[in-house]
Amino acid sequence: MTGLCELYPYEPNRGAAPPDSIPEQAGAARTWQRGRPGEPLELRHARTVLTAILEVRSGRRAPGQLRAVVTPRMYQHLRGAPPSPGPRYTVKSVRASHSTPGTIEICGTAHADRRATAVMARFEHSEAGWRCGFFTVVQPQRHR
Question: How far is CA 47 from CA 19, 54, 108, in A?
């Protein structure tokens, strides 16, 4: 389907926190899950998981701290990958969308110093709740 979707009016109030979930779009209810089954996934929780994964990749956090929020395969990958020291990234913006039943794809921007990179993740539903099963950092291309 190609076309434009209706935009919902949103103007942040000063001092008010941004919305934690995405409003219904195109008539379909969006259900976001957190770490436990049946709870909504707040976007700030997804941002926290992405930030924690970045900290594991840079060696600032132990992989064992993420065992409850990542799939076993992702956990093994995080444990086996050597840390890549670099700047400390802060995940600023996060967007979520359903890709298939039982999966939610997350994308966002991670900022360090004056540089921004894209991060992408996929959360999968299991008996234990939603867990991150895929994560990647998209590094900017260098101009030749």
Answer: 13, 11, 8
CA distance 136 to 138: 6
What is the crossing angle of helices 72-80 and 43-57, to 10°?
Answer: 30
In the beta sheet, which residues pair with residue 112?
A: 115
pTM: 0.70
pLDDT of residue 44: 78
Other C-beta atoms within 10 Å of 143: how many? 4
Q: How far is the C-alpha of 68 from the C-alpha of 87, rounded, in Å?
A: 26
112-138 tens-digit pLDDT: 888 889 999 998 887 777 789 999 988
> Which 3-state string (H, E, C) describes 41-84?
CCHHHHHHHHHHHHHHHCCCCCHHHHCCCECHHHHHHHHHCCCC
Rg (C-alpha) for the chain, rounded Å, is 16
Taking only the tens place, the pLDDT of each residue in 57-79 is 988 999 999 998 999 999 999 99
